[in-house]
């Protein structure tokens, strides 16, 4: 019998922060807007000027910081994470030193503003912009980045450096600014092949290889660039020196445009001092920024550990949080990150319920209740599903009262997306119950939706503030190609990773099995074909930045979401077998960077 679902504490508002960039307090509200006059403060909020999460995490941190020991670990199904914050590199008392760190960060940002202003040419601008982005501090310089991009695209650029040409190409494309692949023609022979002399430029080849992965459909020249650069990088990688050797190794595993940015930031922070153009000011701010944000993220995780689910469901809090963290790590998106993590936990519960625990009749009853979205529909359900259904409604009700009054419609769109997802789950169950064998195309059309990624593409927008309009929600709720593509990438990568490990009893046939049966081929042939299809989906994702430029802030977050799939599914199913993620979790949330 399932255990009762312990209610999650309502998200409470924090007291004002001491700095717009950092604070030891955790701001859980979305962007500051007028709140509904009927929303009342909770008793906990009235009793103390700080939120419950601030109260609950502060004592734990002080104990850890002063004693230098781990806090109570959080166990996630197959892995135990010590969600503690070790002694800060500046001081054993983080809260005492935080004011100094904030002041130091503000001074460093002023110095970096001057660096942007002092750039005299395109090469200086692209070098600075690339460094700021890869060090993870670009969110502090949004205005400066926009100005630099405008100057880069307008200024004449005649560089003969493969590295600089590739860097400019990549920076513009990843910001939704079109630049033709003809930019690389200067490095080709008359017959269209790449010149032999560039094979002696490993830095340029690496930049070409990474940048070429921003290709869209019908760009064979960039496909050729990937093949050419990969071949020569593989030949030379054993003879390269650090840090270029490590950068090449990572890129050959996962190209830079598809990495989880914060993981790559950790790598680059440790490597940046070896770059010939490195600037100590950028590096110091990057380390300080990462450590301060790490403390914010750890507080969010500790708060979320109080969100418990049904005892039969996969306990995937930390893994789910990483997905949301990959979408937006910036402090101002704390509310969005926490609500999205709760959505993902609910999806995991729904998936396990439909897939493994409910009978066909109970699945139909649960879907009927979710379509009604009414507390009175609880009577339709067996006891263990009543607990889940009540929690589902409560989390959405809480979110509606916590967003600004002019943003309450956000949650209504997400509710509709959850109702759609429930219907997709039920369709899969009906297929299984009827022993229906779908075609590969039909299977992928349904399973790309039932994996939940398109649902979360709607949910991730809640609380993001001014860039998100009602029109943007209408667009996302229509499941545009970028959202469906995100679902296809998740589904196909998940199926490939899970195939060798077998599938749980009751699972519907995977896309690989459907392809094997329909085309009468081996698993090796099927996987090879699906990998080719995946490359096409990445092209569609890149193209969305130009096709949906008016919704670029959302598209870029969806691309971040898709990139996170590689952390979980690149060769192994780390979401199901979370022991594979332990080192990543510790680096992102537990171990501060030495200053």
Automatic annotation (TrEMBL):
Q: Which GO terms describe its biological process?
A: diterpenoid biosynthetic process
Terpene synthase metal-binding domain sequence ranges: 309-540
Q: Which cofactor does it need?
A: Mg(2+); Mn(2+)
Q: Where is the composition biased (Polar residues)?
A: 42-51
Q: Which UniProt keywords apply?
A: Metal-binding
The record's section on Gene3D superfamilies has: Farnesyl Diphosphate Synthase, Terpene synthase, N-terminal domain
What residues does the Terpene synthase N-terminal domain cover?
A: 95-252
Task: Spell out the InterPro entries in the cross-references.
Answer: Isoprenoid_synthase_dom_sf (IPR008949), Terpene_cyclase-like_1_C (IPR034741), Terpene_cyclase_plant_C1 (IPR044814), Terpene_synth_N (IPR001906), Terpene_synth_N_sf (IPR036965), Terpene_synthase-like (IPR050148), Terpene_synthase_metal-bd (IPR005630), Terpenoid_cyclase/PrenylTrfase (IPR008930)
Which residues fall in a compositionally biased region of kind Low complexity?
14-28
A single Gene Ontology MF term assigned here is: terpene synthase activity
Residue span of region Disordered:
1-53
Name of the protein in question: Terpene synthase
Give the organism, scientific name. Answer: Triticum turgidum subsp. durum (Durum wheat)
């Amino acid at each position: 019998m399932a255990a009762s679902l312990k209610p999650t504490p309502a998200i409470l508002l924090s007291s004002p922060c001491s700095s717009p960039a950092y604070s030891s307090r955790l701001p859980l509200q979305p962007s500051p807007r007028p709140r509904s006059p009927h929303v009342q403060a909770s008793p906990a909020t009235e009793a103390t000027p700080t939120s419950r999460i601030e109260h609950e995490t502060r004592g734990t941190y002080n104990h850890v910081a002063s004693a230098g020991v781990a806090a109570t670990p959080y166990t996630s199904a197959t892995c135990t994470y010590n969600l503690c914050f070790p002694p800060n590199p500046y001081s054993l008392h983080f809260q005492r030193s935080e004011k100094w760190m904030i002041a130091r960060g503000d001074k460093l940002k002023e110095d970096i503003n001057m660096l942007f202003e002092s750039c005299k040419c395109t090469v200086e601008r692209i070098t600075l912009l690339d460094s700021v982005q890869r060090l993870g501090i670009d969110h502090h310089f949004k205005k400066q980045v926009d100005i630099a991009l405008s100057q880069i695209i307008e200024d004449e650029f005649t560089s003969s450096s493969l590295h600089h040409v590739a860097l400019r190409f990549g920076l513009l494309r990843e910001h939704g600014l079109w630049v033709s692949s003809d930019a690389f023609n200067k490095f080709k022979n008359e017959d269209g092949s790449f010149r032999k002399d560039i094979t002696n430029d490993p830095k340029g080849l690496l930049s070409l290889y990474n940048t070429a992965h921003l290709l869209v459909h019908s760009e064979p020249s960039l496909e050729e660039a990937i093949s050419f650069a990969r071949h020569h990088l593989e030949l030379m990688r054993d003879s390269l020196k650090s840090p270029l050797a490590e950068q090449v190794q990572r890129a050959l595993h996962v190209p830079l445009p598809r990495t989880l940015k914060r993981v790559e930031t950790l790598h680059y922070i440790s490597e940046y001092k070896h770059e010939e153009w490195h600037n100590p000011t950028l590096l110091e701010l990057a380390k300080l920024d990462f450590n301060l944000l790490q403390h914010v993220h750890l507080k969010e995780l500790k708060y979320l550990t109080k969100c418990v689910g049904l005892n039969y469901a996969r306990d995937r809090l930390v893994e789910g949080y990483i997905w949301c963290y990959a979408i937006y790590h910036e402090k101002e998106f704390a509310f969005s990150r926490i609500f999205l993590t709760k959505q993902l936990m609910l999806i995991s519960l729904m998936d396990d319920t439909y897939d493994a625990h409910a009978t066909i009749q109970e699945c139909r009853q649960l879907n009927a209740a979710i379509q009604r979205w009414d507390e009175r529909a609880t009577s339709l359900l067996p006891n263990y599903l009543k607990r889940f259904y009540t929690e589902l409604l409560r989390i959405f009700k809480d979110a509606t009262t916590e967003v600004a009054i002019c943003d309450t419609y956000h949650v209504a769109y997400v509710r509709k997306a959850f109702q759609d997802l429930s219907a997709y789950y039920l369709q899969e169950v009906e297929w299984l119950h009827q022993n229906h064998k779908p075609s590969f195309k039909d299977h992928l059309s349904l399973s790309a939706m039932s994996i939940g990624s398109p649902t979360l593409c709607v949910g991730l927008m809640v609380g993001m503030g001014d860039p998100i309009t009602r029109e943007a929600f209408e667009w996302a709720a229509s499941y545009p190609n970028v959202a469906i593509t995100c679902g296809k990438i998740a589904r196909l990568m998940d199926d490939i990773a899970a195939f060798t490990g077998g599938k749980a009893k009751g699972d519907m046939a995977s896309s690989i099995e459907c392809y094997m049966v329909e085309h009468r081929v081996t698993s090796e042939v099927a996987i090879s074909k699906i990998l080719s299809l995946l490359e096409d989906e990445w092209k569609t994702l890149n193209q969305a930045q130009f096709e949906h430029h008016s919704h670029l802030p959302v598209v870029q977050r969806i691309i971040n979401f898709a990139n996170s799939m590689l952390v979980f599914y690149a060769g192994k199913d780390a979401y199901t077998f979370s022991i594979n993620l332990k080192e990543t979790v510790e680096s992102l949330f537990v171990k501060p960077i030495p200053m």
